[in-house]
Amino acid sequence: MAESDADKQRAPLKRAPRYCYPSTYSAKIPRQLQRDTSILSIPSDREELATLVTSLRRHLQRQERVGIRSLWGKGEAGQTNSVISENETQLSGTEGDLFSDSSATYKAKTLEELRTAIGDCQRCKLSSSRTHLVFGVGNPRATLMFIGEGPGRDEDLQGEPFVGRAGQLLTDIITKGMGLRREDVYIANVVKCRPPENRNPEPDEVASCEPFLKKQIDLVKPEIIIALGKFAVQTLLQTKAPITKLRGTWHAYHGIKLMPTFHPAYLLRNPGDKKLVWEDIKKVIKEMHGSNA
Q1: 292 contacts: CB under 8 Å, gap ≥ 6
Q2: Direct distance between the N- and C-terminal alpha carbons of the chain, in angstroms, rounded to an integer
Q3: What's the pLDDT score for residue 211?
Q4: pTM of the predicted model, to two decimals?
Q5: Distance between CA atoms of 130 and 54, rounded to whole angstroms?
Q6: For 103-289, which CATH class?
Q7: In the chain, N or C terminus with fewer CB closer than 10 Å?
Q8: Neighbouring residues of 46: CB distance < 8 A, sequence distance ≥ 6
Q9: Mean model confidence pLDDT for the chain
Q10: Residue ranges of the alpha helices (H) in 110-164?
Q11: Residue ranges covered by each domain of the chain
Q12: Are 154 and 107 in contact (CB under 8 A)?
């Protein structure tokens, strides 16, 4: 018997199956596709779908690590906890990722190859206002690596990190305080292009640069990282804790010892806190040279 108009109106609408759940960021192959092999009868089709699913999952995991926890508008999807497992390294989620354009990044064997892989980067909106991409500088096999937030005006003009007034103060810390040469260490930033008006980099900008910073760390293989300033510290440690609570205490970044301290630019505005940075630097010197330092 035919359905009445009233029955049709009362019939619930069937929703299309959701294959990527925002609450877990886990892309799944529909059961229908798993059962119906005729849909994916060609091996290359199945492999391509698997590659796309894996790449999407890795992309969403990286977005979550930098604070982008939903692809929907505010209030449309819940936030999730971190998806980083204990077995992940700093390069987890970058190999063969179709969405981040980082395949060449992953394959780079030297810093020079990595810089070539980055090229004339247009991966985020910072590229539209930069003068130079600021990659990094120093010893490619350094024991000690400094990581700041991003280039400032002087760095943008010269294409080298920490060359302005804050950079001169960092050089003094390295040479006069630690007894090293600037070329003995490696210096890089979280993002490679200057944010307008020196604002903090935004989550999508960090996500675009994240594979490059990770690869720099992987290639240099430092024993110790000194993270300079609130933004660099919070980005590397994936925390919102204030730097006043984090500085002066050893932390770990994928098995590498990390010491948070104030940014040199902050010290130019607050010279009274130089003594706190010196306390942090002395802990690094002791760790580098042993308990008798």
Answers
A1: none
A2: 92
A3: 87
A4: 0.69
A5: 33
A6: alpha beta
A7: N
A8: 40
A9: 78
A10: 111-118, 153-158
A11: 103-289
A12: no
Query: How many C-alpha atoms does 284 have within 13 Å on its Cβ side?
Result: 31
Residue with tokens 């992309």, as numbered in its chain: 59
Contacts 24+ apart (CB under 8 A), 102-107: 102/211, 102/212, 105/211, 105/212, 105/215, 106/211, 106/215
pLDDT band at 247 (very low <50, low <70, confident <90, very high): very high
User: Tell me: the pLDDT tens digits for 186-206?
Assistant: 999 999 999 998 898 999 999
Q: Quote the pLDDT of residue 210.
A: 84
Could you tell me where the DSSP H helices lie in the chain?
5-10, 31-35, 43-65, 103-107, 111-118, 153-158, 165-172, 203-220, 230-237, 243-246, 264-269, 274-289
Separation of CA 188 from chain center? 12
The SS3 assignment for 105 reads helix
Q: What is the pLDDT of residue 107?
A: 87
- Six token digits for residue 19: 């294959």
- Maximum pairwise Cα distance, the chain: 93
DSSP string for 210-271: HHHHHHHHHHH--SEEEEESHHHHHHHHT----HHHHTTS-EEETTEEEEEE--HHHHHH-G
Pairs from 28-36 (Cβ < 8 Å, separation ≥ 24): 28/53, 29/53
What distance in Å separates the CA atoms of residue 161 and residue 149, rounded to the nearest whole number?
10
